[in-house]
User: What shape does this take?
Amino acid sequence: MRRVNFYSGLDIDLSLAHKYDFNPYYCNIESSLSDPIIIDGKEFINLASNNYLGLAADKRVAQAIAQAAEKYGASMCGTPIATGSMVLLQRLEQRLANFIGLQDSIIFPSGYQANCALFLSLAQSEDLIIIDHYAHASLVQGVRLAGCKVKPFLHNNVSHLRKILEKSSEYKRVFVVTESVFSTEGSIAPFDEIVNLCAEFDALPVIDDSHGIGVIGRSGRGILEEKNLDNFDGIYTASLGKALANTGGIISGKKELIDYLKYSCPGFIYSTALPPPVLAGIEAVLDIIDKEFPILSERMWRYKQMISNCLIDSGFELTEGQAPITSILIKDLEDCARVAKMIHTNKILATPFVPPSVPPNENKIRLIAGANLSENTINKALDLFRKIGKEVNLK
Amino acid sequence: MSLEERVIKTIEENLEKKEKVGLNTDLRNDLGLDSFARVIIINALEDEFGITIPDYEFKNINTVAEIVKGLREHFPDLKES
Ligand SMILES: Cc1ncc(COP(=O)(O)O)c(C=O)c1O
Assistant: This one.
């Protein structure tokens, strides 16, 4: 009986998907992130992936991956502390740290894992973690696992953060956790102000730059470059599966921090290291960023501007994002389902966000145009958005 | 200020968006508060009244009136102003 109850209790609410005969999640992509991509045998314009610079299907990256597979095989079949510690891994850890502008870094199998593992090995019961209300699920999960006091602050609200910091003197150590780019809306955290507040109140800033690395900053080096934070002495994390177009996650910071984590972070020590082909793929992406970032980023920002302008002209409301993300804001959940379906029917792949990923009445449809798309493709998408705008009739 | 007024003001000052809050406002259905948003409100009430609210006290509370009732019950010494 307990087993029957267990399975019958695993309930998911798909009523909206059934009502509109449309489920946008777990689609069957049959190609690389090419232009167009192929879903269920049909050509789609991809405005959904976090492939900001468009390098996920770049031939040079694929070649580097193939060569590394040829030379090193599929996997080192070991954790970083054991046989996973290969020359490519160590070289990339140092290179990523240099790229971001920090002393050292370690590479995890995923950004989610890095964020979860971080707090579990660093925070103690007498500590306080202050975290942005809308921080990513992996950070929320991580701070909850830490077992210390957690106080969320209102999203990107520096004066609310200050109020909490003013009452933090009883705690042994205080961490302030946020993201650089909040990806459902494209807002950028006032991280320079947050770093200053942390200095004033002797707290440690922790930044997840998953949607900033390779995207923002003069040469794509992320939030620290964007905000001119030269001597950042906090903790930096990021996913390598977005602009860096591969997979994995990093924690970066002072050498003492990284050395400590290498010997004390179970989520790092006991999990198989990223495979050599992926490490080579990330190196190849960094090589391309070094040379071509100005061209790629110009295209990425231009496409964002074109899409945003067109959507506003077509009567849609957008979130106020400063990142190369365009988010359509749709208050009514059913309207959101309807628009998402129309976009999909017009063969554009987009990402709808509904609660609990976003607050109620703040449903969003996110569009990210990678720099690999041609201007022709973007213009085709704009024509389709104009058509959808005329047909949609929002509440 | 009455206890009710102080609770309402504290909640209004600790929401992501400006919203009118009354005694019958439901935290989830009217304000759409997620679990972190509830924690923000609890922490703000703790600071406002100088008390510590155990997590379980807040678990089954839905409306602002229920918060006020809970505070009166558990913290009988709370001043009205
Ligand atoms: C802000 C943020 N942090 C962390 C992650 C998790 O990274 P990964 O996909 O590498 O596990 C994501 C998304 O995937 C993210 O958007």
